[in-house]
UniProtKB/TrEMBL annotation:
Family: Belongs to the Glu/Leu/Phe/Val dehydrogenases family.
Taxonomic path: Bacteria, Bacillati, Actinomycetota, Actinomycetes, Streptosporangiales
GO annotations of cellular component type: cytosol
Domain of life: Bacteria
Subunit structure comment from the entry: Homohexamer.
Annotated catalytic residues: 128
UniProt protein name: Glutamate dehydrogenase
Origin species: Sinosporangium album
Residue ranges occupied by any Glutamate/phenylalanine/leucine/valine/L-tryptophan dehydrogenase C-terminal domain in the UniProt entry: 205-445
One Pfam family recorded for the sequence: ELFV_dehydrog
GO biological process: glutamate biosynthetic process
SUPFAM superfamilies xrefs: Aminoacid dehydrogenase-like, N-terminal domain, NAD(P)-binding Rossmann-fold domains
Residues engaged in binding substrate: 92, 113, 116, 167, 379
Length: 447
């Protein structure tokens, strides 16, 4: 749908005021396009500068992070934390440690989080952060010193009722542990609900490590059931081989699909017999090696260097590495090879052109802000457990995750149909998230 004049003017202004932030512009453009039917139905949604406020972060912090490597040499990185919206609860969203991190990347991720977190129905606002630090090849001691240096500044901005960071690319439970340790040391408080994604002994939740990947598969299951299909007997291709991918692979195979390929930034592995999650775990999480090491352990697999996996024929694609990793040509190749469904495990991994190809071909398409919401939803469950000093069992927590994903699926589907776009999960997710956050913003007054 084309933008009306008022929204076009708003969008132009956002681009002018946020120069050189292409990913942020892209994320905003998608939402503005999607919510046009809602704005047409209820023009009062534009009142009181609501749209302008929605697209302007409440707060943005940028800071210097100084740390020393194992040889005693000093390094300087740039740290970020953006609190985009606290209309529904404390800012909530992960931290990304990757050399490509910029303010624009963090803003796009925090903006996406507004709608994603609203869809969970769990009373969490939206934030995101990170640093342009490259953890690859760094020793455990270097990682710890970087995390301590980063938290030395970040601690001023966060808290269980203010802003609750978690993991994202390059930040797993090890980093969360070091970050929490430094927070605890500086503040003199064991305030477990200040960070989520912790290991169990320091206040973590069962299922949080698995949640994003499992959640994507629960969403896929619901989306396929809507079309009278299931995961049984399907082949799947994933990108990435980190937290999201590894657990999505486990759940896909548990539900009867065969995952024939996954990737890292150096290439992809292919095995028609199915990728083995235990081997992947050993190579990536224990030995911290690249995927070219996988065929050493599984000789039936081959490693294809320097390529993405989108030319591999499959029924289901789950891009789970990074933004804009799947473009128009990739989408065309996937559709030509018989694709039936896509679920975004990563945030905004498909370019707008690729999404267009999928939608034109009537492929079931689940946008990241709906499909990967299981991670942040389970973080909210971790916050609930921390607040009551409880620890729920794996089955209980997994059941809550599965129910949340089914609810998100159904909200997206019914909202899309209600606004004249049946089966369009992008429209459904954006409008449902937008209506929820905008009603809260109106109740809170002009802030
Ligand atoms: N961890 C979580 O709970 C959630 C993560 N996500 C999103 O899922 C995606 C993956 O995150 P995680 O699995 O947590 O991170 P991770 O650090 O565990 O794994 C990232 C994976 O992506 C690959 N990768 C990273 N940058 C790449 C690049 N430029 N080109 C090709 N491959 C690249 C890495 O090799 C690795 O396999 C990200 O987009 C993240 O924002 C979304 C929701 C929640
Ligand atoms: O669990 C969280 O708070 C972070 C999840 C996240 O960063 C995401 O949903 O992209």
């Amino acid at each position: 749908m084309t933008l009306d004049a008022a929204t076009t003017a708003l969008y132009r202004d956002i681009v002018r005021r946020n120069p050189a932030e292409a990913e942020f512009h892209q994320a905003v453009a998608e939402v503005l396009h999607s919510i046009q039917p809602a704005l047409q139905r209820d023009p009062s949604l534009r009142d009181a500068g609501l749209m302008e406020r929605l697209c302007e972060p409440e707060r943005q912090s940028m800071f210097r992070v100084v740390w020393t490597d194992d040889n005693g040499a000093a390094h300087v990185n740039r740290g970020f934390r953006v609190g985009f919206s606290s209309a529904l609860g404390p800012y909530k969203g992960g931290l990304r440690f990757h050399p490509t991190v910029t303010l624009g990347i963090v803003k796009f991720l925090a903006f996406e989080q507004i709608f994603k977190n609203a869809l969970t129905g769990l009373g969490i606002g939206a934030g995101k952060g990170g640093a342009d630090f490259d953890p690859s090849g760094r020793s455990d001691g270097e990682i710890m010193r970087f995390c301590q240096a980063y938290m030395t500044e970040l601690h001023r901005h966060i808290g269980a009722q203010t802003d609750v960071p978690a993991g994202d690319i390059g930040v797993g439970s090890r980093e969360i542990g070091y970050l929490f340790g430094q927070y605890k040391r500086i503040t003199n408080r064991f305030e477990a609900g200040t960070l989520t994604g912790k290991d169990l002994p320091i206040g973590g939740s069962l299922v949080r490590p698995e949640a994003t990947g499992y959640g994507v598969v629960y969403f896929l299951e619901a989306m396929l059931a809507q079309r009278g299909q299931s995961l049984e007997g399907k082949t799947a291709v994933l990108s990435g081989c980190g937290n999201v991918s590894q657990h999505a692979i486990v759940k896909l195979q548990e539900m009867g699909a065969t995952v024939v390929a996954c990737s890292d930034s150096s290439g992809y592995i292919y095995d028609p017999a199915g990728i083995q999650p235990d081997v992947l775990n050993e190579i990536r999480n224990v030995r911290r090696r690249k995927l070219d090491a996988y065929p050493e352990a599984v000789p039936t697999a081959k490693f294809v260097a320097g390529k993405t996996p989108w030319n591999v024929a499959c029924d289901i694609a789950v891009p789970s590495a990074t933004q804009n990793e799947l473009g128009e040509a990739d989408a065309i190749a996937l559709v030509k090879n018989g694709l039936i469904a896509v679920a975004e495990g990563a945030n905004m991994p498909c370019t707008p052109e690729a999404v267009n190809v999928f939608q034109e071909a009537e492929i079931a398409f689940a946008p990241g802000k709906a499909a990967n919401a299981g991670g942040v939803a389970t973080s909210a469950l971790e916050m609930q457990q921390n607040a009551s000093r409880a620890q729920w069992s794996f089955p209980e927590t997994d059941q809550k995750l599965a129910e949340t994903m089914r609810c998100i699926h159904d909200i997206c589907l019914t909202t899309a149909a209600d606004y004249g776009k049946p089966g369009d999960y992008v429209t459904g997710a954006n409008i449902a998230g937008f209506l929820k956050v905008s009603s809260a913003m109106n109740m809170l007054g002009l802030i």
